[in-house]
Amino acid sequence: MVADELSREELETAQSIILFDIEELGDFKELDKIGIEIKKFLESKRYECLAKNDTVITNAKLLPD
Q1: pTM
Q2: Within a 13 Å sphere around the CA of 58, how many CA atoms are in the beta-carbon half?
Q3: What's the order of all strands across the beta sheet hosting 55-58?
């Protein structure tokens, strides 16, 4: 899992962690496309994000307190 590879600082400052998957396990290009599109959207709203494989980490607060 990608979260294992992320630094402690990245995880501690994250407001939201988005995990996603596709049915075709061999189609990693699709995973990249999904991550890039989510990242582009969040950045267009002025949020910071980091996309790695099947995970997007962002400072966007996606869930209420």
Answers
A1: 0.71
A2: 24
A3: 16-19, 55-58, 49-52
